[in-house]
Design a protein that fits this description.
The structure holds two protein chains of two kinds.
Chain A (H helix, E strand, L loop, with lengths): L1 E5 L9 H9 L6 H7 L9 E5 L2 E5 L8 H5 L5 E3 L6 E3 L9 H5 L6 E3 L5 E3 L11 H4 L6 E5 L6 H7 L2
Antiparallel strand pairs in A: 1-8, 2-3, 4-5, 6-7
Chain B lengths: L9 E5 L9 H5 L5 E4 L4 E4 L9 H5 L5 E5 L12 H13 L4 E2 L14 E3 L20 E3 L8 E5 L5 E5 L7 E3 L3 E3 L9 H14 L3 E2 L16 E5 L8 H5 L3 E5 L10 E3 L6 H7 L7 E3 L9 H14 L6 E6 L4 H10 L4 E5 L8 E2 H6 L4 H14 L7 E5 L5 H10 L3 E4 L1 H6 L22 H4 L4 H25 L5 H4 L6 E3 L4 H7 L2 E2 L5
Parallel strand pairs in B: 11-21, 12-13, 13-14, 14-17, 17-18, 18-20, 20-21, 22-23
Antiparallel strand pairs in B: 1-4, 2-3, 5-19, 6-22, 7-10, 8-9, 15-16
The chains are: A alpha+beta, B alpha/beta.
Amino acid sequence: MKKIYIKEQYCIGCRLCEIHCQVKHSKSKKIIKAFKDEKEDIVSRVLVEEVGYNSFAIQCRHCSDAPCVEACISGAMVKNENTGVVTCDEEKCVGCWMCIMVCPYGVIKRDLPRGRVASKCDLCVDEDIPVCVKNCPNEALKFIDTSETDSKEEVEVESN
Amino acid sequence: MALKLAQSEFEIERDSQKCISCQVCVRQCSNDVHEYDSDEDIIYSDNDKCVGCHRCENLCPTGAIKIKEKEAEFKKNYNWTSSHLRNIYKQADSGGIILTGMGCDKPYPVYWDHILFNAAQVTNPSIDPLREPMEIKTFIGRKPDKLNMEISKDKNGNTKIKLKTKIPPQLELSTPIMFSAMSYGSISFNACMSLAAAASKFGTFYNTGEGGLHEDLYGFVNNTIVQVASGRFGVDKNYLNKAAAVEIKIGQGAKPGIGGHLPGEKVTRDVSRTRMIPKGTDALSPAPHHDIYSIEDLSQLIYALKEATDYKKPVGVKISAVHNVAPIASGIVRAGADFITIDGFRGGTGAAPLVIRDNVGIPIELALASVDRRLREEGIRHKVSIIVAGSIRSSSDVIKAIALGADAAYIGTAALVAMGCHLCQKCYTGKCNWGIATQDPYLTKRLNPEIGTRRLLNLLHSWSLEKKEMLGGAGINAIESLKGSREHLRGIDLSEKELAILGIKHAGEAW
């Protein structure tokens, strides 16, 4: 499957990925309107971690044996067998936060403004490229399928 | 000091209707111009600190920021311009020399913009480069005085021609453009890496500048020109042999007669290893080479370098375009150089005193024309290749330079611009927001060499296509046929003297 790979050596910590993720998951989908009217209500599903000059943007890894799916008590968290994308059905989510407890990457967040639901990266399934990847000004995020290509660069990316 | 006479050069306009307080501008400015006030959820900007690099404007996701040059900041005066006043205020404050970066920005005439190129009509057909072969490959290096052939017949009676003359070492360029000398130290590793990778992929060359060669770039040996400058940083036998050619740097267009000074802050662990100097010490390049005080001395260094490289690599000399450039060039050819690089007064730099950059040297167009003529008159033009540098801004500048007598052109500023440089001229501060002229690990990350390489390749590709179009339009199918063919050029709005120096006719004069 196509996944988002992180090239942390080129992350410049601008957080444009977070901003565009928030816009994508807002009601209006318009950047100015989203931030003026809904700023408090939208949670970014990608998170820029920063220590000193090191930074990287991390979002759900869509693990092959996703612990969050196993831990989910209500069956809200599912992994699509065809696409491999892990999503949370917010209708079913009861907000027990078990997924948050077991996530090894810490990329699931509580979305309190929209009700007690777990908020995580949905890989922008309705877009060709996830918005965080598309809007990264330094190509520090790459959306690639490592099984389809074996070029040196992709292997290098896979290792991180 | 409370009294501040100098006023800010730029004005930051922030459209509050569009600003979403996302703070991208705050995070991206290395000059701390923008500040977020969390109480009011507003970003304030300090005009005084802005250098006009446009990083924030380019990255703002809503287009809320506009950086404007401040107009009418002082009372209009054609003699005492605002730059004069600002400089005096600064110097009265500091008592120091004013430093600057990049090339001269004063309104001296740009001769490229007064030269027009020819096109074919009726009597000589033009060529469509998309359908017919068009050769823009060129060779840099000394050419033999004549070619001796051995003609023999093989046993079947077919004539065989064998070249007997030994051809001196040549650099093969797929396009007559190379990346000019920019040292690791003055620019970041990622910038060096982008230049090296692009040169290698396109089949041309990049120049290391005087800062040594980082060992991670050893792989680009076939596309590297190493420089030996007055500081001799990082020069040893290994360095010389990790390159396809060696260039002795005597001068630089932006600061003829002036040495270099890389401040200790930029001499990081890697830079110190590459330059072979202690970490954190200032890297001082003396103004002259202390072992070169004559053409004979220069000859000794040229042959020392040729010995060290087994006479397998071309050795060239880079000089800045100064008043006496033609006779100096003649001396350099006689000293044994395989190529001469002439750097015009608009050439860029990482740091130079403003007074030197803006007032010393001559335009590259005039220097090139007079050097080419002088070497032809003396019958030694073929012994050397001429590379021009110093503000080659477009493919048409390259074409005009070649018609004026150059073999190839170096691009430095244009390459940096392709990688994101906005010519804010603050390279010497080490705070380059575009990750180019800096060693700060927080900033160097901003130039992803993959993107840099791709953009440089695109630039080389598009300029090459444009050159082919221009050549085809003039009915020429090889760049070698254009070399020194000044009949293809016409001057416009130039005096008799200027035309005479350039060796071209005025527009409207037929052949």
